[in-house]
Design goal:
Elements (H helix, E strand, L loop, with lengths): L17 H28 L4 H13 L3 H14 L4 H13 L3 H14 L4 H13 L3 H14 L17 E12 L6 E11 L4 E12 L2 E15 L2 E10 L8 E10 L4 E12 L2 E14 L2 E12 L4 E14 L2 E15 L5 E16 L4 E12 L3 E13 L1
Antiparallel strand pairs: 1-2, 1-14, 2-3, 3-4, 4-5, 5-6, 6-7, 7-8, 8-9, 9-10, 10-11, 11-12, 12-13, 13-14
Helix pairs in contact: 1-2, 2-3, 3-4, 4-5, 4-6, 5-6, 6-7
């Protein structure tokens, strides 16, 4: 049986300085390109050499050309359907592309041919973990324990400490163009995970805009009230509001579907001193290996006046269970307070970079920075930081 390297579903590469990371990536890419060129030359002289074809598939996989590698493995399997190495390579590429069910079926074929192939077992276990299939996971662990009693990879990790209460605190600052006064915001939030699969939260915040200050109270929660659906609701109130809504009510429903798909529907009603704004939203998302791609559509209407439509595109990378990074791009129109007591529809465009770093089981750090163009009125460049602690 040929030796091969398992290409895992979960990334584990530590972040490096940007210049060092780019240099390393360039070296690897250059090496893979040279290897592919040499393999293509060798295959031109010996097109039937299966070892060269297998090495070419692995090099394509290593260089990130997942679909091309999958096609190469499929070609090998068309000729050698009972080769467990080719099946493993195919399953690795399917898993990378988010085809979890197909990858699991491919691995089951490999296990039927090579029941003691440890790399196949490990990837099959990763897929069950990613699918949150507790029944399949327990069965796979039991079988792996019987087959590989000295191994540790099949053992369930120690249960993390469950914190029912979390306290968060943070601040953000916005620098405005065109001589407009800068903004700022500070908040403290408490989250409570209830014993009945529900979550509640409360937040107090102080916001400063246009040299005026608003203080708000925000409460809400999320519950598993329907099969496979999560329902959330929240209410915010601001006393003597100058630029925030006096009252804001929101509700949403989210559901995870098969193969990494998910959807969310939302409603928000904001009542300002100068009028009300109703908003409806739809979000579609797709998880691919360690990545999430999402699109959000928002439609807002001011009572008796304008309506606005905006779009947001989100790309997130879950580099590990301790770190994630994301970028959000927004474009369209929105109805907001522009200056004191001026509820207007304006064109907007924005980009936001964000991240979360879990420093320990009870401590995590979140950050964000970006820029927001508010029509011809001003541009906001903003940044913020928050800390979350489990109690």
């Amino acid at each position: 049986m040929r030796w091969c390297i398992v290409i895992g579903l979960l990334g584990c590469t530590a972040l490096q300085p940007a210049d060092a990371q780019e240099k390393q990536s360039a070296i690897v890419a250059d090496g893979d390109a040279r290897a592919l060129l040499e393999l293509d030359t060798a295959l031109g002289a010996d097109p039937g050499n299966t070892l060269l074809r297998y090495e070419r598939a692995r090099t394509l996989a290593r260089s990130g050309q997942t679909e091309a590698a999958l096609a190469e493995f499929d070609g090998l399997l068309a000729e050698f359907p009972a080769d467990a190495d080719y099946l493993l390579g195919r399953a690795q590429m399917q898993a990378r592309l988010g085809q979890s069910a197909a990858a699991a079926a491919t691995l089951d074929r490999a296990l039927a041919l090579a029941p003691d192939y440890e790399d196949v077992w490990q990837l099959r276990l990763q897929l069950a973990q990613r699918a949150n299939d507790d029944v399949a996971l327990a069965a796979l662990r039991a079988q792996a324990a019987a087959r590989f009693p000295a191994a540790t990879w099949w053992r369930a990790p120690a249960a993390p400490i469950e914190y029912q209460f979390w306290v968060s605190g943070g601040f953000g600052a916005d620098r405005l163009s065109n001589g407009a006064p800068d903004w700022s915001r500070e908040f403290v939030r408490v989250d409570w995970q209830t014993p009945t699969a529900g979550a509640l939260f409360g937040e107090v915040s102080r916001s400063e805009r246009f040299e005026e200050t608003d203080s708000s109270l925000y409460v809400g929660g999320m519950w598993d009230l329907l099969p496979k659906w999560q329902l959330g609701a929240a209410l915010a109130a601001t006393k003597d509001a100058r630029f925030l809504p006096e009252l804001e009510l929101s509700a949403d429903a989210t559901r995870a579907w098969a193969d990494g798909w998910g959807t969310a529907f939302g409603f928000r009603q904001r009542d300002y001193v100068t009028g009300g704004v109703s908003s409806y939203s739809f979000t579609g998302e797709k998880y691919l290996s360690d990545y999430r791609i999402a699109y959000r559509l928002d439609h807002s209407r001011q009572t008796g006046a304008d309506s606005a439509l905006s779009h947001a595109f989100v790309f997130s990378w879950y580099q590990s269970d301790r770190r994630n990074l994301g970028v959000t791009l927004g474009v369209g129109e929105e109805i907001e307070i522009i200056g004191l007591d001026r509820l207007l529809r304006t064109s907007v465009s924005n980009v936001t970079l964000s991240g979360n770093e879990r420093l320990s089981q009870r401590l995590s750090l979140s950050w964000w920075l970006g820029t927001h163009e508010q029509g011809d009125f001003y541009r906001r460049d903003y940044a913020g930081l928050s800390v979350r602690i489990g109690l």
